[in-house]
Amino acid sequence: MGSGRELGAHAPQFRRSKKIYLRFRIPYYTQWGQSLAISGSGAALGNWNVAQSQRMTPQHEGDSLVWEVMIAVPDNFETQYKYCLVDDKLNLIKWEAGSRRFLSIPQAIEAEATVDVHDSWQDGSSPDVLLNRNAFRKVIFGKGNDHEGKEIILETSPFATEFDVEESVAVRFRVTCSRLESGQSVCVTGSASSLGRWVNETAIPLHRVGGSLLQADVIIGRHELPLKYRYIIRNRAGDVISEMGGDRTLSSEPSAERISALIIVSDGYFRARPWKGSGVAVPVFSLRSTEDVGCGEFLDLKLFIDLAVTCGIRLVQLLPINDTSVNMMWWDSYPYSSLSVFALHPIYLRLQALSKKLPNDIKEEIEDLRRRLDLKEVDYEATLEAKLTVARKVFELERDEVLKSPSFQQYFDENQGWLRPYAAFCFLRNLFGTSDHSQWGRYSVFTSEKLGRLVSPTSDHYTAIAFSYYLQYHLHIQMTEVAEYARLNRVVLKGDLPIGVDRNSVDTWVAPTLFRMTASTGAPPDFFDKQGQNWGFPTYNWEEMAKDNYAWWRARLSQMAKYFSAYRIDHILGFFRIWELPDHAVIGLTGRFRPSIPISAEELEQEGIWDFNRLSEPYVRCHLLIEKFGDRWTEVANKYFDETQHLCYQFKEEYNTEKKIAAALKLREGSPQWLMNEAEETQKRLFQFLREVVLLRDTENPRMFYPRFGMDETASFRELDDRSKDVLRNKYEDYFYHRQEKLWRENAMKTLPVLMNSSDMLACGEDLGMVPACVAPVLEELGLLGLRIQRMPNSNKEFGIPSEYEYMTVCAASCHDCSTLREWWEEDEERRARYFKDVLGFSGTPPPNCDVQITHTILQQHVESPSVWAIFPIQDFLALKEEYTKRPATEERINDPSNSKHYWRFRLHVTIEKILHDQELIMIIREMNVKSGRATLTELPEVLAAEYADMSNGERTHKTKNIAYGNANGNIADSCRAPENLKSIVKGGEIRDHYTILECK
């Protein structure tokens, strides 16, 4: 190595043919039989083919296990790369998390030189990986992260002088920091003279080189190695925030044989205190404002974002906003049954914003509709009809002007791939009076040629086609305005990705091969429904979807990313395995997991089980018929069953499925009540007999079986001999809890990474229900947030303990799929008493209603948790003030999962404008967020922050009655146990804190 070479942009610009030696080093602990490999772009790193990647070798260095590999590369080498965990045969076990790394060799590096690359493993569960998502980098910390894009080359080199590589080494410090405010910069300081010897004022600033990655090049004397250093954040005023933890260390080179000309130190992330935030969840239709017509609208969200900002809330979570107009009636209020996964729902349209030139008669019509539809709950049908009627009138007035505008043309060009089929579908739905495209004659089968004719501008019906374009264009404009408003206010807008689509949808019409149309999606019995759920969606043909690398999913996520910076994956368990039901099922009990490894006939025969017909066909015996139907048993037996042998029966062909029975027992409207009751009871009992099976036979392979969920509750199982019961119990346990884990993990790892890599939105998984053991490790590996609902813990405990939640979780006291906090409190007296004592730490009898003190205690318990997000339904926030609790709690529920025809119509009973002016409620929520560290005064609007800071603690205190929950005589209990940071102090008989959670002597 010669001396006197300058390392920087002013080096000679010519191509050299000799090699550079790259030495990659990374500390990581592996299990026996595992090793690390490095894979990336270019032949040297296997072109992302793990089987051709560079395997690394381990070196023990003190207490650390460091993996290392040296490769020779051209001197103009650049690559993107990642580390991966592999087995002995170079089969992939898992990738590290985070984005791809970028590396290029500086032009000033001499040929034959050695470059050391010191990396650290990117762990999916690391808070720092999470904070590099757009929700944080571009929204919450957006003011300090305005520069995005690929790594850039600095115009001037930090290496201003020549150096002798025998005496010095160039060090490139790299660290990622997404949490920068405007005016802040990251610097590196340390023990070397060129790092300022720990003097903050002379620390070396890092420069942004792409995204949140920062970099600085420094010359370090070799005699100063090993080097101690750390990163700091410094603002223009000179204020300094030092990263947490001990000093970082750069050791001397690992090999004296090849000294380094350059050491690239990739230090991962700036070590800061884990960030935490709070959020509020609300369906758009539930909002109420002084402007909306019949239900909440997209533009109402701007007011709601204002409310979030004033309360120190950083996230607004919505239910799905896609068009669900399948039946054109109130059934379509169900937001998870999409007509199109790309189109927005017209019911959220703000009519007043359609045009700046609305005629007075239309303005008056809108105002009249607004007054008439300002109802207690959403009238879905009337609201949608009103909006479509007015929108058509405006469309007729400005059709040519809008459709010829440059902004519409751009929108159409960017979205025509889904927009044209959607418009054609809506036209055919209205023409044929049904969304069941199997009833559309020659249009039942979709082709591009048919679509072209349908949407041709020269067709007689083009006005109807263009109206759908017009609606979606305006919905897009309004939702885009909301998304930009949220970003500018540094509020994360979180969407919802439904697990399914309606079987009569644009997507199943255009791409039927992507779906298993002869099956239905649902969920096994769980907290929400003891009979299981049948959602009616077709299941996915994952094998077909994989052929184009899940292009449908990637397009779907890209569309969502236009409006959202975070999203909730509905029923994420479905990406591991889905509960699949035959299309003739009505309820969700007799399903099976897909994919799953069935139980073979050979397995059972080896254990002495051979009577498969007895176990897999409905078990109907005379004594059971008498037990179910009493004196009516002979009538029922004769009508619905054939006697196969003495006292044994089987269903007749016309009644052998749930749908056939439901159709046969459907009565005309106006039938006598006694007859309707009898039909309902008969259907219920016959359904029970259809479910009298122990094993479900595979329809594609009759020698394969699946145990029926809850098989031991059937009479068929109870009447088996003890040995058969033991065998079947073991098979049941193995099927549901053991044999599928590897398969389900592999299935999820095929699909979830594709979803996450198709956008930079923050992903959160709804992992409730019957959760396999493989789910948590996969979510952790991928950096996916899990959901924690206190009343539905992922453990054997009755209640979750928020203080025990992991950081990579979203915690909540309730959600849209269950009762609100107030309703839950009132549902079960015995459970309420256990929660009051065991979780809240009170003695005595709990109040019958969830008053504001109880609500505050529970919500405070959640915001104090380690979870990165604490997200509450707006109903739970409103319960913090007595004024908003006058409405019966049962009227605040959004969804009842046990009712497949639930009407989704909940509306707030107060306008957003009124809540925005309620400084008392805002102060309660704001204080809760500030005290828990989920908001800071600097994050509040300047006026509010000043107002808050000027108040004394007593003035900031919400003035509520002090209620000491104690014994029946009202005495302060002597066994209260509450979290330390929530306890009040009782001293000298005086309660000094308003929260009324008492620490008693």
TrEMBL record:
Keywords: Carbohydrate metabolism, Cytoplasm, Glycosyltransferase, Transferase. One of its GO terms (molecular function) is 4-alpha-glucanotransferase activity. Its EC number is 2.4.1.25. The keyword Transcription regulation does not apply. It is found in: Cytoplasm. PANTHER family: 4-ALPHA-GLUCANOTRANSFERASE (PTHR32518:SF3), PTHR32518. One of its GO terms (cellular component) is cytoplasm. This is 4-alpha-glucanotransferase. It comes from Riccia fluitans. Residues 14-123, 163-277 form the CBM20 domain.
